[in-house]
Specification:
Length: 348
């Protein structure tokens, strides 16, 4: 069995975490990761509180193992940007409009108040882990820890890691540029050892890890475990479109790109017609969350249709290592077995 300090810290058999992918990491995927010995994390950053409660209850009905919830707590200055989202879509996006299929997007879906309500539900339901992205406010960390939760924070730089440690988190996730979704500028190979050297809390590696080789490499770099996202997209349990899964297992290395056009912050997604439409117009992109609230009426229904040319499909560069759709539990166990074997072979 693969053991690091994370096993005891989080009460898990394997130091492998499922990424809190919004709209993708639902009860099915989270329970499968936890049942396999890892720790699944629900992606609940923008769900309505009632749905947060429902999905936590459903996850608990599928596993009695530890699992977590991923939330975002935007800065107060970002909350003031919501009114900008009321601007009409730029004319160059009119070709994507389907007036009969526009989604209504609630304003302030990423607000501190709503995120606080989601956290209150998780605490009341006994969720064991809080995963924070895009910042780790000390008050939020303290609230979660006072309720008995463990807290981890995703970071993309040494400075952010030190700030998260100061806020009181139990571990930091060093997420490299290769990762899907919101990502920083430094590669995993450079970021992980830099953060390991900078903080005293355990480090979890993320970005570019799709198999046992990647996990073993992360451990050699000094990480105590790994957080897996893109590899778990290609599983039956992932709540993403079948078009996305089929595209992922056929992808080449130049088919993802980092863009701010969907959320207002840099995010690695599948390159498509929507992304290309913003080339040369980056100055028109609004801050997060206003950019998301502005484009979501078009993007959400496109994702429901499985449209790869309009929808935002967060996907990491390691998609080129994923060639089949495999049950999540099998992915986690195989990754751990392969990493254990590789580390043993190299220690001989």
């Amino acid at each position: 069995m693969l053991r690091t300090p994370l096993n005891d810290l989080f009460g898990i058999d394997l130091p492998i975490f499922g990424a809190p992918m919004g709209g993708v990491a639902g009860p099915e995927l989270v329970a499968a990761v936890s049942e396999a010995g890892g720790l699944g994390i629900l992606g609940h950053a923008n769900l309505e509180p009632d749905e947060v409660w429902r999905q936590i209850r459903l996850t608990k009905s599928r596993t009695d193992k530890p699992f977590g919830i991923g939330l975002l707590f935007p800065s107060r200055t970002e909350e003031t940007k919501h009114d900008e989202a009321r601007r009409p879509l730029p004319a160059f996006l009119e070709k994507f409009l389907d007036i009969d299929d526009l989604a209504e997007v609630p304003a302030h879906s990423y607000s501190h108040d709503l995120s606080g309500q989601r956290l209150a539900i998780a605490i009341e339901q006994g969720v064991r882990l809080l995963a924070l992205g895009l910042g780790a406010p000390a008050s939020v960390v303290a609230r979660a820890k006072a309720a008995g939760m463990k807290v981890i924070a995703l970071v993309g730089s040494r400075r952010a890691a030190l700030e998260a440690e100061l806020a009181g988190v139990d571990a930091v996730v060093a997420q490299g540029h290769e990762a899907g979704g919101h990502t920083g500028r430094t590669s995993t190979m450079v970021l992980v050892p830099q953060i390991v050297d900078a903080v005293r809390v355990p480090v979890i590696a993320a970005g570019g890890i799709a198999d046992g080789r990647g996990l073993a490499a992360a451990l050699v770099l000094g990480a105590s475990g790994a957080l897996i996202g893109t590899r778990l997209l290609a599983t039956p349990e992932a709540r993403t479109a079948e078009t996305h899964k089929r595209r992922l297992v056929e992808m080449q290395e130049d088919e993802t790109v980092v863009s701010r056009c969907y959320t207002g912050k840099p995010s690695r997604v599948i390159r498509n017609e929507f992304v290309d439409s913003w080339k040369g117009r980056e100055a028109e992109i609004l801050p997060m969350p206003a950019q998301w609230e502005r484009v979501a009426p078009v993007v959400i229904p496109a994702k429901r249709r499985g449209s790869l040319e309009i929808g935002n499909w967060p996907t990491g560069q390691c998609a080129v290592l994923v060639r089949n759709v495999t049950p999540a539990g099998e992915v986690i166990r195989q990754m751990a077995d392969d990493a254990t074997r590789l580390l043993s072979d190299h220690c001989r």
